[in-house]
Amino acid sequence: MPGREHESNEKQTRATYTLGFKQEAVRQVKTGRVASAMAPAPKVSLTNWVRADASANWQHPLT
Q1: Alpha carbon distances (Å) from 20 to 6, 16, 43
Q2: Distance (Å, whole) CA 7 – CA 49
Q3: How many other C-beta atoms are found inside a 10 Å radius of the C-beta of residue 31?
Q4: Strand, coil or helix: what is 52?
Q5: What's the pLDDT at 13?
Q6: How far apart are CA 42 and CA 50, in angstroms?
Q7: In the 3-class helix/strand/coil scheme, how is 13-46 assigned residue by residue?
Q8: Distance from the Cα of residue 32 to its chain's centroid
Q9: Mean pLDDT, consecutive 10-residue segments, the chain of 63 residues?
Q10: Which pTM was predicted?
Q11: pLDDT of residue 63
Q12: What span, in angstroms and rounded, lies between the C-alpha atoms of 23 and 46?
């Protein structure tokens, strides 16, 4: 497939973030910091973390 950097038989690992990192990222997003400035976390992760924070669902935090 064009644009793919990895062979299909290579296993990719997902980044994991500590709960503290996630909570700090959410705090910064809520104070108006641009989500793209929160590298290395992908925007979709930030979105999920903000949703989890809003629902107080940090028991099983997303990666």
Answers
A1: 31, 12, 17
A2: 30
A3: 7
A4: helix
A5: 82
A6: 13
A7: CCCCCCHHHHHHHHHHHHCCCCHHHCCCCCHHHH
A8: 17
A9: 55 84 87 71 85 75 48
A10: 0.61
A11: 46
A12: 10
User: Residue 33 is which amino acid?
Assistant: R
Are 62 and 45 in contact by the 8 Å Cβ rule? The answer is yes
Residue 54 per-residue DSSP state = H
Cβ atoms of 37 and 55 closer than 8 Å: no
Torsions phi, psi for 32 (to 5 deg): 100, 5
Q: Which residues, other chains included, contact 22 with Cβ-Cβ below 8 Å and sequence gap of 6+?
A: 49, 52, 58, 61, 62
What is the pLDDT at residue 35?
A: 61
- The pair of structure tokens assigned to 18 is 């500590």
